[in-house]
Design goal:
The structure holds two protein chains of two kinds.
Chain A lengths: L1 H12 L10 H9 L2 H5 L6 H11 L6 E7 L7 E7 L5 H20 L6 H12 L5 E4 L2 H10 L2 E5 L5 E4 L29 H11 L5 E8 L5 E8 L5 H12 L9 H8 L11 E3 L2 H9 L3 E5 L5 E4 L17 H30 L7 H11 L6 H21 L2 H21 L5 H16 L2 H21 L1 H17 L1 E2 L2 E2 L29 H4 L24
Antiparallel strand pairs in A: 1-2, 2-4, 3-5, 4-5, 6-7, 7-9, 8-10, 9-10, 11-12
Chain B lengths: L1 H18 L10 E11 L5 E8 L19 E8 L2 H9 L5 E3 L5 E4 L1 H6 L2 H9 L8 E5 L3 H6 L8 H10 L8 H9 L6 E14 L7 E16 L2 E6 L1 H11 L6 E6 L2 E21 L4 E16 L8 H30 L6 H8 L1 H7 L3 H7 L1 E10 L15
Parallel strand pairs in B: 1-4, 1-5, 5-6, 6-7, 12-13
Antiparallel strand pairs in B: 1-2, 2-3, 7-8, 8-9, 10-11, 11-12
Helix pairs in contact in B: 8-9, 10-11
Classes of the chains: A alpha+beta, B alpha/beta.
Chain lengths: 546, 397
């Protein structure tokens, strides 16, 4: 097995030539821009600057260069550079162009502004833009333009003014598709990073909520934000997240999944050690428990770390609904989790090895169904499970109305027909269906892991019966015990045991009893609510002095 | 490198096949035995009969397969010197692997039982598949008949016999319990009796007004053993007497004459019963006083008198006690005087109280038992009289 692992590693390293891998930064930069034109500071001559930028944005038909003169002094030439479609056109023409080319004259009463004072005047009085900044570096100018800002160059000055007038067509905030709840906020994240950070900020109105940004992806230059609540989050985890993110050197990041695979603790595991959600309330809850969120521009999926196994039993709604009901639902989830993993294996083990485990009537019924089925139960189960996966994939990829049709065809027609034709036993169809539905109860991310492991357990059970099933489960359990997410044991608070944190695992304790934050995530014991909040009638309430 | 990888990969894949499936038995390759019967033939050969389920008949789903009128079971026999030898011959006639794990009953033919169950019991305890919790039945006649007859309500006669036994209207004995009784010196074993006879009727669809009677099993009475050999039978009435003495609660009715009208009857349904056996030994004579305490509900009366009155209840209670005493005494008379074996477990009660003396008496316990004096006292109570306070259909006063 060691040899096999090495071979795979070798295969994965293929394409990385020695020497090139040493300094990837150089390589990436070299492919994008000739470094000489980027590193130089802006010139005081507008023409030179424009020439340079034009050569950089050569063949970029969406970049607009608009040159005009300052209303106060025709000697002062101005240029606006922006990308068509990424700026708010009304603002650019009304608040910048109109102001500078026309209205400034009224403001100053015809007084001439010298070339030397033009920049200062424009910055102080000329622009009606709420968010401006200045830079002297060509690099920053390029980034500003590409980010959707409008850059104003003033002749005779080595400083450019960056106007924050971003505005592009964006998707509205809609209800979450992947994680829906009955009770709870309806909004979900969108593709724009700023909107996403604002959604979190709206929930946590505290200066302790820190949102640090960095840019990743040498070509895509994607904005990435790290959000955490200072004084709650574990500093070590925050530092670790930053370290891992800063190490990333990649040409493009199109979705948070790119980053996830680059910062995971155990890249070979079936189990996700980074959570992703599109619900702001869930992220806010995670932040309040001391986790760190990683937001990526261009995707509504926000990652949270450290991510533990218990998270897959939890749903945001758990904290909004009544705790007794929620605890019961958690048990159901746990049951479906176990079912979706072991049921097919258990069925195979019992039907082909341990017939004595079934009550006589059930055995006879199963035997009757299997009468005339041409293949052994393993083949039958594998075919049905694969078929189920095919149907599921088909349902996901097809346009939504068609997807429903597929599921009806799959569930009713194929299942029923196969049973009627005697190709599969009805019991097998029931097991496959139960397993499938069980995996739907779980969060999609963990169900992916279980879907794969299920096949492993099926093969083990078919080879060794319950013996195979239990040893397979033991290996999975051992693996889970070894997993860590950003240093936090994956199975905590169960393994290692933190008794106070068991209040939010299989059952959910009422809010007035969840005094502390999860200890391991925050790295220390933290109180989150005062004791004595349990509702009581006025008579039963302890007398308060004064 | 690639060669090495390939070798490792091959080893991994092939080794999973190596270990695999050696004890795998697909359900559709099994002949599921529901009942086993053992008879002794005149030529001293043992005949092993099995009732094998025909799975198609157990298919519930709308009858897509199987059809309605399929036979649900197949009874097949083979002979041999021992059970296992017969089982080997059986394997030549049964095209699937014989699977004993779900056999519900073990029926012993009368002749076999008289010869001694010890001859054949070993196989069913030693083999790993047959369960110790099988019901042990003794057939009046041949065991094969029990497996060859059918059942109208259940799919097979083995199921019918097992469910009848499980209802505990009589005394039910598992194979394990029989072995325990056999091992103890303080009690002699018993087993449930099973009879095959025509009973009930099924209307014939083709000819109106014609009903066919089917041979079906009936579980009633007890087979009495001395060690492992059958010595005699108890009928239903005596079996209930036995249950009273043994202290087993059972579902039963006691019918007594109405207190005011001896020609009309009152039925009482048992709620619970407790039996205490107290042995007394003065070094010479052994005496047992059996104290039975029971509660019952009144469920039916034929007379029109008002039995709800306290004095009538009292009268009923004493009539009931009398009836129970009569039952117990009848059973005791027959077993103690007729067969001379202690099937009630009085020996065990004696053992618990007189440990020292038991050591001396245990090897000739049956003789001591025959000489022992047994007194039965019954305390009966009536708890509920149902939903009527006055008898139904009684004329207005």
């Amino acid at each position: 097995m060691v040899g096999l692992g090495k071979a795979i590693k070798r295969l994965l390293r293929r394409g990385v030539k020695d020497g090139q891998s040493d300094n990837p930064i150089k390589k990436f930069r070299g492919t994008i821009l000739s470094s000489s034109s980027v590193d130089v500071p802006l010139s005081s001559d507008l023409e030179t600057n424009l020439q340079r930028l034009k050569s950089i944005f050569d063949k970029c038909s969406d970049v607009v260069f608009r040159e005009f003169v300052f209303a106060q002094n025709e000697q002062v030439k101005l240029a606006l550079i922006y990308i068509d479609g990424m700026v708010d056109k009304v603002q650019v023409s009304d608040q910048i162009m109109r102001a500078l080319a026309l209205e400034v004259a009224m403001a100053t009463g015809g007084q001439k502004i010298t070339k030397a004072h033009a920049l200062e005047f424009i910055r102080e009085r000329g622009l009606c833009i709420n968010q401006i900044s200045e830079t002297g570096k060509t690099q920053d100018v390029i980034h500003a333009i590409l980010s959707g800002d409008t850059v104003l160059l003033v002749d005779g000055h080595t400083t450019a003014i960056i106007n924050g007038v971003r505005g592009w067509e964006a998707r509205a905030i809609t209800e979450s598709q992947a994680e829906s709840t009955v009770r709870g906020p309806r909004e979900s994240f969108v593709e724009t990073l700023r909107v996403n950070t604002s959604l979190i900020r709206r929930k946590i109105k505290s200066p302790a909520l820190k949102i640090e940004t960095l840019r990743l992806g040498e070509v895509t230059d994607t904005d990435v934000a790290i959000a955490y609540v200072e004084s709650i989050a574990n500093e070590k985890v925050v530092a670790e997240v930053k370290t891992r993110l800063k190490k990333i050197r990649v040409d493009g990041i199109l979705e948070s999944g790119y980053i996830e695979e680059l910062i995971e603790d155990n890249p070979w595991s079936f189990f996700p050690t980074v959570n992703a959600t599109e619900r702001p309330d869930r992220v806010a809850g995670m932040l309040l428990e001391g986790r760190v969120a990683i937001l990526v521009d261009g995707t509504p999926f926000v990652m949270t770390v450290p991510s533990l196994f218990v998270e897959y039993l939890q749903s945001p709604e758990d904290y909004y609904e009544r705790f007794l009901f929620v605890s019961a639902v958690r048990l159901i989830r746990l049951l479906s989790l176990v079912l979706s993993l072991v049921l097919p294996g258990l069925y195979i083990a019992i039907v082909s090895f341990h017939h004595e485990l079934l009550p006589t009537a059930l055995l006879l019924s199963v035997a009757a169904q299997r009468e005339g089925v041409p293949y052994p139960v393993l083949v039958e189960m594998l075919v049905m499970e694969v078929l189920f996966e095919v149907l599921r994939e088909a349902g996901l990829r097809l346009p939504r109305p068609l997807g429903q049709a597929i599921s009806i065809v799959g569930a009713l027609v194929i299942g029923e027909a196969a049973v009627r034709a005697g190709l599969v036993a009805a019991a097998t169809v029931i097991v496959v269906a139960l397993t499938g539905i069980g995996s739907f109860v779980l969060s999609y991310r963990v169900s992916i892991a279980f879907r794969l492991l299920r096949f492993v357990l099926i093969l083990l059970s078919a080879a060794l019966g319950l013996m195979g099933l239990t040893s397979g489960m033991a290996v999975i359990m051992i693996h889970l015990c070894t997993l860590r997410s950003f240093g936090i044991p994956y199975l905590s608070p169960m393994i290692p045991l933190t008794t106070t944190d068991l209040k939010d695992v299989v059952v959910r304790a009422p809010w007035w009893a969840m005094f502390t934050r999860p200890r391991l995530i925050a790295g220390r014991r933290q109180t989150r609510l005062e004791p004595g909040l349990k509702p009581a009638s006025p008579e039963a309430r302890p007398k308060v002095e004064g | 490198m690639i060669k090495k990888t390939a070798v490792v990969l091959m080893l991994a894949v092939l080794s999973s096949l190596l270990g695999g499936c050696w004890s795998r038995k697909e359900i559709s390759e099994l002949a599921i035995v529901l009942g086993v019967g053992v008879d002794l033939l005149p030529n001293d050969q043992i005949r092993l009969s099995v009732q094998i389920a025909q799975p198609g008949a157990f298919y519930g789903g709308g009858g897509a397969r199987g059809g309605g009128m399929q036979t649900a079971s197949w009874a097949v026999s083979a002979e041999g010197k021992t059970i296992d030898e017969a089982a080997r011959y059986l394997a030549m006639r049964v095209p699937r692997e014989i699977y004993w794990g779900h056999s519900m009953i073990l029926v012993i033919g009368e002749k076999m039982a008289r010869e001694g169950i010890g001859l054949i019991g070993d196989f069913f305890n030693r083999e790993k598949e047959p369960r110790e919790t099988m019901w042990l039945l003794v057939a009046e006649g041949e065991a094969r008949d029990v497996l060859e007859c059918g059942s109208i309500l259940e799919k097979t006669s083995a199921q019918a016999a097992a469910f009848l036994t499980r209802m505990k209207t009589g005394f039910a004995v598992e194979l394990r319990e029989f072995a325990e009784m056999l091992a103890s010196k303080g009690v002699q074993p018993v087993a449930t009796r099973v009879i095959v006879k025509e009973q009930g009727a099924v209307p014939c669809a083709a000819q109106e007004g014609v009903a066919t009677a089917y041979r079906q099993v009936e579980v009633s009475g007890l087979a009495i053993f001395k060690e492992d050999r059958l010595v005699g039978w108890l009928d239903d009435y005596e079996t209930r007497g036995f249950l009273w003495l043994k202290g087993e609660t059972f579902k039963g009715i006691i019918t007594v004459p109405s207190p005011g009208d001896a020609y009309k009857a009152v039925s009482l349904r048992l709620r619970q019963a407790q039996t205490k056996v107290v042995p007394e030994y003065d070094g010479e004579r052994i005496r047992f006083s059996v104290k039975i305490r029971t509660e019952a509900d009144m469920v039916e009366q034929q007379s029109f008198e008002d039995l709800a009155k306290p004095e009538k209840i009292k009268a009923l209670e004493s009539l009931m006690a009398e009836e129970i005493r009569a039952m117990a005494t009848t059973a005791l008379e027959k077993v103690q005087r007729g067969y001379g074996v202690d099937i009630f477990g009085f020996g065990d009660a004696f053992h618990r109280k007189y440990k020292e003396d038991w050591r001396r008496l245990k090897d000739r316990w049956d003789e001591e038992f025959i000489r022992a004096e047994v007194s039965v006292t019954v305390e009966a109570h009536i708890r509920e009289i149902g939903m009527l306070t006055r008898p139904a259909f009684s004329p207005e006063e």
